[in-house]
Amino acid sequence: MGYKAYTLMAIILASLALVIPIGTTYATTNATEGATTNEANVPDINATGGGGGGGNWTTFDLTAGGQTLPVQYMITGGSVENMTIHSENQTLGVTINSTDDGTLALRLPREVIDAKTVEGSDADFAAFIDNAEYTDAGEIEPAADTRTLLIGFPAGAGSIDVIGTSVVPEFSTIAVVVLAIAIIGIVIATARHGRFSFDPRM
After folding, report:
1. Residue-wise pLDDT tens for the chain (202 aa)?
2. Distance between CA 195 and CA 7 in Å, rounded?
3. How far is CA 77 from CA 21, 80, 87, in A?
């Protein structure tokens, strides 16, 4: 291949190398107590043995795609340490510190994560606790803009992964900028040196 083909391949590979790591967007915590609703005792519904408790919803500020998205939760038997969006596999990861059997209730905005069938109707979320599939996740009647999941966990659990069919961001603002720069670079290189040719020189 000529130097032009190598140049094109280098631009594309560099773009991919920059975009792929952006797929995982980490969250920042800003817990706010207070938002009470008639679902205040939701964690009791699906406790795996601990039960008890209930209380106010706590808001976790999830920073993704250049914006802050609030995710409300309640937990018995432990505490929420962090939340992470993994756009490459449509997953919301929740890091917990569990001291007893308990339940995590998540009120998930559809703009953050959702699960849909091909026809567009609501589908069940998949859930994993410490990388083991959890099959008994409950869900309260979904709302137009949120879905509320109930996931029971055993004492000692450290991570809960919720898997849907779409998450934010599919592409972050930075990823779009990187791709745009790569495309502009290709256009400029093509304009200066003529058409790229992958045919071997004789």
Report:
1. 555 555 656 666 555 554 444 444 433 334 434 333 334 344 554 333 334 445 689 999 988 777 888 999 999 999 999 999 988 899 999 999 999 999 999 999 999 999 999 999 999 999 999 999 987 778 988 999 999 999 999 999 999 999 999 987 644 445 545 555 767 766 676 666 655 555 555 5
2. 12
3. 34, 10, 29
Q: Does residue 77 contact residue 100 with C-beta atoms inside 8 Å? A: yes
Residue in 105, 155, 160, 101 with CA at minimum distance from that of residue 128: 160
What does the alpha-carbon distance between residue 44 and residue 57 come to, in Å, rounded to a whole number? 13
pTM for this structure?
Answer: 0.62
Backbone angles phi, psi at 183, to 5 degrees: -65, -40
H helix count then E strand count, the chain: 2, 14
Residue pair 64/27 in contact (Cβ under 8 Å)? The answer is yes
Are residues 25 and 167 in contact, defined by beta-carbon separation less than 8 angstroms?
Answer: no
String of DSSP letters for 51-91: ------EEEEEEEETTEEEEEEEEESSEEEEEEEEEGGGTE
Assess contact for 44 and 54: CB atoms under 8 A: yes
